[in-house]
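FAQ
Q: What does a multi-component entry look like?
A: The components come first, one per line:
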Amino acid sequence: MAAAPTKASQQLARQLFALSLVNGLVAPAQVEGVLAYLEKHPPAQPLQVLQAYRRLVARELAKGEIVVEHAGPIGEGILRGLEGAFTQKYKRQVTARGVHNASLIAGLRLRIGDDVYEASIANQLAQLSAA
Amino acid sequence: MSTVLEQIEQQIAKLSNKAVKKNTGTIRSVADGVAKIDGLSDVMYNEMVQFPGGATGLALNLETDEVGCVILGDTSQLKEGDEVFTTGKLLSVPVGKGLLGRAVDALGNPVDGKGPIEVKEYYPVERIAPGIIARKSVDQPLFTGIMAIDSMIPIGRGQRELIIGDRGTGKTTIAIDTIINQAKINKVGLASGDSSFRPVYSIYVAIGQKNSNIVRTISALEAAGALDYTIIVTAPAADNPANQYLAPYSGAAIGEWFMENGMDALIVYDDLSKHAVAYRQISLILKRPSGREAYPGDVFYLHSRLLERSARLDGKGSLTALPIIETLAGDVSAYIPTNVISITDGQIFLETDLFNQGIRPAVSVGLSVSRVGSAAQVKATKQVGGKLKGELAQFRELAAFAQFGSDLDAKTKAQLDRGSRIVELFKQPQFNPLPIELQVAVLFAMQQEFFNDVAVGDIVAASASLKDFLTTRKEALLTEIRTKAKLDDALEAALKAAIQEWKASYATAAGGAAAAAR
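Then the predicted structure of the entire assembly, as tokens:
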């Protein structure tokens, strides 16, 4: 198990993450630049810095993508509709990606960043059994 | 009408296909009852967080990259990567009269094996204390049943009186005696049918104590018939520090329900030293900056916000607090004791030396004080015990000087003699609180010098004999003292006559016993 990241590693990861953004969005070219810099100038805790950096980038990328879990078929139109609605709601450009999940039984589960929107039968059944 | 509509709307909501939004996070690490969580970007401070397996957590540290949560419940099933989500609710506990006679944990779940508790209301564990406008000054007495306290360090309804002393000096006993006395008063008051009578309900919060001690306390309350008016909140030593940290706040929330609903309640925090230690443990694990004695910077606020919730509210009820603090080697100037002393409205200081000398309760008159003072005393007690504190303080001073010389003048000897009699008179066995009318009668006998010719060693027996005589043969007189709450000329004469009657019989009995011994 890797040692816990120090405050300095976390701070460096945050600084590198800030450098990876262009207009508030993660830019692949910037990320490549950051990685190249880290390879050339390895920090004191390279693994911890990279892990913290990865977490920050992954969290930011998750904010720009809706993962649409569905049990039945889902059309391209629905995904584009969701993109439009969530772009307006979160005031940033988001893209939608469908993932088949039979355990939902029916309905959808949307995940964007930390937020989860549950509209599945499996969730309703779970709520009924908990009540 | 609106209730019917609400019911229909609830039914519609159940069947509605509307999406439910949850804010989620993933566990990054779990250690020592604290979880570090990635995500939870919408979580509020002190919000309940739902963990897998039914465990709940409390969000205490909101940082840039992670959230620190204390977990209330079993942590053994939790692992890295588990998903958690916010509930949008602040931690709440069940409140109401349904809890009376029950023992619950820090979250209000029953732990006494007597089945589920019927409750309709929940109060948040953390609440802002009542402001200055809502408060009323403390001027109604709360009798502890302990003569030394009721006569010299009176406690009022809505007051915060600290009980402080080393381990094994009788701190918990004073608290338990007070609870038992409330139950006794409640029984008499409710049986009298007096509509103006206000019962006092008690809440005993056990923090970081051994389970065997808690069981002993519950048994003592049950044996004295006080459990029906008492709620026990337990967070024993085996419980996780998060529960020990929360228990006093849960108890306060339960007490606030009584206060808000026009009733009077008494809450005992046993003890806040262990509470501070539990909070220090949580804070250190959460990596909060530590200060003096490794306590976090907000350890004063930890206790001030708790004790400020005890108050007497205008037009409503009251919540009286008896926090307990354990000192080390009698050091009242340590960090946590000085904090709590400065927050409370007085303290009852118990001395190890007095306890070892057999003076029980071992109340140190010089160091104990009630900042509410005689405002919370009935007139009868003021009449018979107004000068006692001064007399005893003078006695202690003289006794210290008397050790250096044998030649004492008559006045000093008389003062020493009287002081040692008062000390003997205040000795009281545990779990045996005295009704206020009996306290008044005994102190009246002392004031009128009825004990002057009784040997110091026989004072305890003589006072027990007087109490017995008055209880069995002068019940009407005692009832009159209780209802009038002051000694007028007629009552004083009647009491004097009764004590003279006792004195005659006591002198005969004592003389007979002495002759038999010869």
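Q: Is there any commentary attached?
A: Sometimes. For this entry: The first strand of chain A starts at residue 21 and ends at 22.
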